[in-house]
Model the fold of this input.
Amino acid sequence: MANPNTVLGANPHPQQHENDPRWESVDEYSFSHLHPAGSVHPSNEVLTHALNSSKKEGLPNIAVSPSQGKYLMLQARMLRAERILEVGTLGGYSTIWLANAWKGVKVTTIEINPHHQSVAQTNLSHAGVSEKVESLLGPGVEVLSKLVEEVKAGKRGKYDMVFIDADKVNNWNYVNLALDMTRPGALIIVDNVVRRGMLADAEAAKTNSNVEGSRRVVENIGKDPRLEGIVIQLVGGKNYDGFLVATVNIEE
Ligand code: DHB
Ligand code: MG
Done:
């Protein structure tokens, strides 16, 4: 296998881009204290069940980390988000976190893969949040376009928060469609934009469509008067990556 550091180009500290054992240790230490046994929203049993059943069913091990999941939940709680849109359900791990934000929350989650959707539905049911989650099957762009029509027709309310964690080439398309159905002040989070630092590597973007998709969403949000955003770099059990965090502007 090619050394992934060579992909990064002029990197003066090659090993520092790879998993550092301290990152996972800090994740484990802090999460064990901040979400200890006895936590109920959601319980560690529910979270572990979702990850174990996803693994058993052959889903890729690419869900958000526990701390990242809880961060999403706390953001949703702070917003008192009533409607959350998620693109990329996978096994429903992040969906479980979002659905536990508070009693008034409903999550619409979109998944392209029927097997993933079915595993997620079982996990959501085990987590006791099926009633709070609407699980839709299909390609993100198609399903989102349908949702936009429903919001425009007044058949569904505008979203307060959007979490995008699907195919990276469509990152901007998802944000752009979400803008037609989010309220002013809504929060949009896009996962995996940093990718071990490749975000800043214009050369990598020429051959890696995921990097290109992440750069496009960063650049387009920067140019778009409807949005304000930043990238938060993250390390931990999921290596070195990051969230793009943006808000839909409030008209003054
Ligand atoms: C990977 C991780 C993700 O969170 C994701 O959404 C897609 C891919 C990965 O590690 O490959
Ligand atoms: Mg992801």
